[in-house]
Amino acid sequence: MGPQPNVSFGQTGISLKVDFTPVASLSKEQSSTYVKETCLKLVPGKDVSRRLSTLDDEGQLRMAHAMALYESNRVPGSDDAQAIEWLLKWGRLSKALPGDSGQRFEREALSASGLVKRLLINGLAPLTDKTVAELESIYSPAYVSTGTGTVRKTPPLKIGLLRNGLFRGLTQLVDGQIAYFEPGKGVKLQRDSMDWFKEQATHVQDYVKFECGPYPLANPDSGLLTGYELSTHLESTEAVQLNDRRLLGYLLNRAQVVGYGSAYGKPFATADFDGLRDEDALYDLMGELLRKPGMRDKVGRCLQLTGSHSSDGTIRMNPVIPPETSIGRTELRWNQLRTLIHEFLHHLSHPDFNDKADTIGHGQIIDEGFVDMITAIIFRQLADEIGKKPEMAERFLRIKEPAKPSARQLTTGYAEAGKGADQITGKIGQDRAYAGFFLGATKFLGFKK
Ligand SMILES: [Zn+2]
Question: Could you name the domain of life of the organism this protein comes from (predicted)?
């Protein structure tokens, strides 16, 4: 394999050379020597012999071709030492091989080196001060920017109003979630098999990795490049361990939905709640609500019926099939697919992005809003393709006749947090939103701190 067509990365204009001439006819030993010498040339003193020797034949081949790609495309200012580290880690865990269809090997290798990330970030212009100022009141609704700085606009918290509004709204939300799955008298609950979700997960992972533009794959530390497999990290929501942390976490998450939600009378606004100032008060209130008679059981049941993720990469899918009165079977399939994408995106969000939730008033914009905004973008693209190709309907939904998902599933959910993410992305553009979310380039998201 000598010179090949360039590999391009979505609509970003990034187009990189593919020329394997230097490594095309090398034996295993020669491949290894080539990698060692290239590393020494890029970073004097960088000895990778020991780590190379632990790779099998395919690994040696993979590394030699990846080094050739990296060396011929690196740009001034590239961190070669870091690129070598990333490539060695990826080379050990990847299954990609030169010659894979759709230039998948080339896209993986160049992404794993960090080069694509660097080029994507270099290609984005910084935000203007005007845009940053406009974003502030979305991130932190309780604050307002003046000519000379930022001031809090909310008076002291009215705890009684907050308690009443949240307790009423959350009880309604929790009861509604349970009722949605209630099978009715004498009817047995039906369940989907976890094997089905595992199959679906394999296709979802592949789709996000290669069909959703360069950003998801461009983070060299992403699970997409370091051997994570969604299908082996799936669990049933019914197996979730119910402890205080999880029960409280569920209520705190839903408190944001209720607190900002017009359907619940916006208790945060009524009570002059400030997410940065009143975090502890909210935490205490949720503890109080959880101690009310019957509440632990109800919240526990909700956890067993709601998709979720853990920081170790575990993703839980709800296998319970709601009765036909709640949702039709085809709509349920679409909904499961959407949930799987949503939970998987949590796993792919960059830690530096996630850390920003604590620095703004409406933290759920970061915790959930962006996740669901990107979920909706990917889901719309996928739903469009599934609508045209019956074999994709079979693969992703296990149905023969792909009716469309309901309009509700095609737009960003998560109430006000989702609206906030939509508004922010409208102002900064999808590329910057993706760079912040997937690559941790949070400077493009316009935070004040
Ligand atoms: Zn979520």
Answer: Bacteria
Measured in Å, residue 337 CA sits from the centre of ligand 1 at 14
Q: Are strands 149-152 and 143-146 parallel, antiparallel or unpaired?
A: antiparallel
> What 8-state DSSP symbol labels residue 101?
G
Same-domain status, 117 and 265: no
How remote is the CA of residue 33 from the centroid of ligand 1, in Å? Answer: 47
CA of 346 to the centre of ligand 1 (A): 7
Rg of the chain on CA atoms, in Å: 24
Distance CA 234, CA 201 (A): 8
Distance 61 CA to ligand 1 centre (A): 39
Tens-digit pLDDT profile for the chain (449 aa)? 678 899 999 888 899 999 999 998 898 889 999 999 999 999 999 999 999 999 998 999 999 999 999 999 999 888 999 999 999 999 999 999 998 999 999 999 999 999 999 999 999 999 999 999 999 989 998 876 666 666 777 789 999 999 999 999 999 999 999 999 988 788 888 899 999 999 999 999 999 999 999 999 999 999 999 999 999 999 999 999 999 999 999 999 999 999 999 999 999 999 999 998 999 999 999 999 999 999 999 999 999 999 999 999 999 999 999 887 778 888 999 999 999 999 999 999 999 999 999 999 999 999 999 999 999 999 999 999 999 999 999 999 998 877 799 999 999 999 999 999 999 999 999 999 999 999 999 999 999 87
Cα-to-centroid distance, 341 and ligand 1 (Å):
10
Strands 320-321 and 190-191: antiparallel
Determine, yes or no, domain membership for 136: no
167 and 266 housed in the same domain: yes
251 Cα: distance to centroid of ligand 1 (angstroms): 13
| Ligand 1 mean position, distance from CA 78 (Å) | 35
Task: Answer yes or no: do 366 and 219 share one domain.
Answer: yes
Distance 232 CA to ligand 1 centre (A): 19
103 lies in the same domain as 181: no
User: Six-digit token pair at 199?
Assistant: 């199959």
State whether 190 and 319 are in the same domain.
yes
On whether residue 433 sits in a domain, the answer given is: yes
Structural domain of 207: 159-445
